[in-house]
Amino acid sequence: MRFLYISILLFIYNAAFAQQQAAIIPMPANFVAGAGFFQLNNNVTIGFNNDRLKAVAYYFQNELLSQKGITLQQKSSNATIMLMLKPVKKNVDSNAYQLSIKPDKITVSAYHPRGIFYGMISVLQLALTGKNNQIPVAEISDAPAYAWRGLMLDESRHFFGREKVKSILNWMAFYKLNTFHWHLTDEPAWRLEIKNYPNLALIGGIGDYLNADLPAQFYTQAEIKEIIAYAAERYIKVIPEIDMPGHATAANKAYPEYSGGGAAGHPEFTFNPGLEKTYSYLTDILKETNVLFPAQLIHLGGDEVSYGNEKWNNNPDILKLCEREKLKDNAAVEHYFMKRMADSLYQLNAKAIFWDEMADADLPKDKTIIYWWRQEKPEQLRTALGKGYQVVLCPRLPLYFDFVQDSTHQYGRKWNKLYNPIAQVYAFDAASFANSTTEKQLILGIQANIWTETVDNNVRLDYLLFPRIAALAEAGWTHQGKKDFKAFTTNLGQHLVLYNKAGLYYYDPSKALLHPEIPMKRKKPLNYKD
Ligand code: ACM
């Protein structure tokens, strides 16, 4: 009897221990823990049944080498870790994978190399969070709740540069996030080299949110290609944003002849929709952009145009346009402009993405994606879904990561007194915004956005991103019914150890006082863009 009692206790302990070891974030759809461990060491070999998986094996080998000093070799048959591509079937999710961990063998199988990659990310997380390079025995089958799991970084207001962007991409891959939305143009600066219009970067790249005189900082086309290749190795697509017709200040500094003017707080804020040459100028820019960014998805902005389009009321070219096209007000001009620019993009076989203001414009629904960002305007989401647009949810509350995460934090944004603690990021349930099965299918997924008026240094960027990025990942990947904030918090504890190892400064909700807020390095900005 006593033996049985001890055995049961040991079993419970082992099961609990195995669970605790299995700190995979985001939590897989199905996870069955077993007994024992696979021991990772230099005798372990890695093989694959299809050459398309060579790069995934290579990625994993190098992660283990750099993070653990383990030198896994590739082997053509009977390797201890096997990557198995299954024959393609119709209607399978390319993200899905199965992972079998036995004491003497690990097998990852999927229909697509992407699924194999995600399976190996799960193995990597287990290897990095487990003790003594032991990977707990388990059977996992996994697929994400949402196809779109994104993160946006604003590099117009502050420029972080190639190495920081790569580091963010690396962590995105670690959390199975798959879309990097790069906000490269706005009021303070333009950060993308365009060969036909070199002054966009050379002049538009000068300055940032707090200092208009900083020497130009921007990405050359060679650097863009390098970063896109880096992202592609990690199954991340990169979507550039060329914001128009508002937020065009930096572009207008470089080429004032296309400016439609601005307003007191936002000088030279818009492009001029009344000039024919504006459309060919912007189309030329989009042509280069669409070659550089192979996702064939370009974000055209469309937000907050009313902040600075009052000069449109008296501009003779715009008045002529209104008469010719029977446009009754500035909103109609904006929609006319956007339809033409979206058409230009469609001609390039690319889809257009817009902020939710453009749900009101009459754009073709099969080529348009709307980002719902204004949580106080649920009607914009209803309009977008009602019109049949695909939608990505990134409401400021709780998905703007430049909002603070604790009531005592002072440097980031708040919405009245509201802010974005990790628990609310975690709890975000995209499906709850759908009123029908059709609407559910139109919701592609979720995205967190980091605007950088209040972020002028890498350490502060890390502090806002970590660990909320982990909560974002689980909100995007794990089915709502499987989400468990307590289990997530336990698993997160082991990921915080990884953040320490990586030299990241992060916010720890359980030890807030030991992880005080990182302030701005320079003067705190007074006016935030909302
Ligand atoms: C936005 O935050 N202006 C989209």
Short account of what is shown:
This protein has helices at residues 2-21, 54-68, 113-129, 162-174, 199-202, 221-233, 249-254, 276-292, 316-325, 330-347, 378-386, 396-399, 422-427, 437-442, 458-465, 468-477, 485-501, and strands spanning 30-39, 45-48, 73-74, 81-85, 97-102, 105-110, 134-142, 148-154, 179-183, 237-244, 259-263, 266-271, 297-301, 351-355, 368-372, 390-393, 443-450. With 530 residues, the chain is of the alpha/beta class.
| Helix segment tally | 17
What is the domain tally?
A: 2
Give the percentage of residues in beta strands: 15-25%
Structural class: alpha/beta
General form: globular
Radius of gyration, whole Å: 25 Å
Number of strands: 17
Tell me the CATH architecture of the largest domain. Answer: Alpha-Beta Barrel
Q: CATH H level of the largest domain: which superfamily?
A: Glycosidases
Residue ranges: pLDDT <50 for 5 or more in a row? 6-21
Biggest sheet record:
8 strands, parallel, barrel
Instruction: Kindly provide the name of the CATH class of the largest domain.
Output: Alpha Beta
Distance between the termini: 67 Å
Helix content: 25-40%
Please list the strands of the largest sheet in the order they lie side by side: 8-9-10-13-14-15-16-17
Question: How much is the average pLDDT?
Answer: 94
The unique ligands bound to this protein are: acetamide
CATH fold label of the largest domain: TIM Barrel
How would you describe what is shown here?
- This protein is globular.
- The protein has 17 helices and 17 strands.
- It is an alpha/beta fold.
- About 3% of the residues have low confidence.
- It folds into two domains: 141 residues, 2-Layer Sandwich (Chitobiase, domain 2), CATH 3.30.379.10; 367 residues, Glycosidases (TIM Barrel).
- The longest helix has 20 residues.
- The chain binds acetamide (ACM).
- The site of acetamide has 4 residues, from loops.
- Acetamide binds next to loops.
